[in-house]
Amino acid sequence: MKKSSISKALFTGWFALMALTASISAQAQMRVEISGVGSNQIPIAVAAFANEEISPQLVSSIIRDDLNRSGYFRLIDVGSAISETATVDFENWKGKGATALVVGSVQKRGEGRFDVRYKLFDVLKGDMLSGFAMDTPSPKIRLTAHKIADDIYEKLTGIPGVFSTRIAYVTKAGSEYRLEISDADGEGVQVALTSKEPIISPIWSPDGMKVAYVSMELKKPIVYIQNLMTGQRTTVANFKGNNSSPSWSPDGSKLLVTLSKGAIAQVYSINADGSDAQRLSNSGGIDTEGRYSPDGRYIYFVSDRSGGAQIYRMNADGSDVKRITFKGSYNISPRISPDGNTMVYISRRDGGDQVYAMDLLNNGQELRLSDTNRDESPSFAPNGRYVLYATQTGRRGTLGIASTDAKVKQKLTIQAGEIREPTWGPFMK
């Protein structure tokens, strides 16, 4: 393959984004479609919360939607509201097939504030597993419901829930590109950035307060950091040639970037303020898409040094380079799970680009996660159990979510347009 061809292939996000043509509304909400279920679904009853109709949104409905979307719960019909102060007839709920029960209430505390109370019961043991009360301002009702769903998910599966986390993605409205932030379910969309030129490769900082991305507004790729709280923007990499593929170090002090500096693209580290760019990779091929392992010891990256795009690993100082992928002639976009045990990536096989997961601990065993064929830009959920990615349905760009056991699939679409370049945000402290 010629260098010009592989260069274009390795900068997949840039060229895919430039192809977007449909317009969308800045406040358009996503439609979520679910297919497949997790193994050993947990039968759970989520009652309507007492007095929840006084709040702007129904807390119990949001909780049900979250648990249903996860694929790991089977919802039992309740039919009526139950307060957290009510006496629970556990035998009755056993007879209905429930192993867990959620009850609660919403009370008004003052102008624009609500007291949301909830309890989770183990029906089989007749015990309360969890419960809390949250003083919630009106605009945060949805977030409180997501936090309750997170607590339920964790208490019943042993894995932290991600319903209260956020995702970011790029859309295009007319001639305007937008970096948008939403809840993990696609609700609560906010525009973080607008531009007349493509916005590429957004990625959250470890603290969830900033997003690094590439912009083409000066007619060349430049890496920026956007503070989501203040709106302040910092230029990180604007060297001669292309500046692309930002990713954060685990502590948020540095980024990996791909710089050509007028020559062939290589992986560099650079401080978050744009100082002290240090070259890490060193080959005669194109090296790009560098990603730290969660412990910061390793960097995974894409290189065509073997003749085609493959994924490699090196120490954080650039030493001891090892090839990781061997199946398929084209493997890009490595992303490492929060526990460091799994790598997801895009692999081209049988004429399609699909999301694959590789077990990094057990001889590189692979599992295909997606059931689509034009996938790109995978991103792990912060609990490591789901992967968000861009794909196409027909000729429209959509987002997909797949569980890492490949049993649960979701499709997120916007009715009037296309979405690209997704990234899943971290847990917020």
TrEMBL record:
The lineage of its organism: Bacteria, Pseudomonadati, Pseudomonadota, Betaproteobacteria, Burkholderiales. It holds the Pfam family PD40. Belongs to the TolB family. It comes from Undibacterium flavidum. The keyword Cell cycle applies. The gene is tolB. The keyword Ion transport does not apply. Residues 31-128 form the TolB N-terminal domain. This is Tol-Pal system protein TolB. InterPro entries: 6-blade_b-propeller_TolB-like, Tol-Pal_TolB, TolB_N, WD40. The Tol-Pal system is composed of five core proteins: the inner membrane proteins TolA, TolQ and TolR, the periplasmic protein TolB and the outer membrane protein Pal. They form a network linking the inner and outer membranes and the peptidoglycan layer. Residues 1-28 form the signal peptide. Part of the Tol-Pal system, which plays a role in outer membrane invagination during cell division and is important for maintaining outer membrane integrity. It is found in: Periplasm. Keywords: Cell cycle, Cell division, Periplasm, Signal. It comes from the Bacteria. Its main location: periplasm.
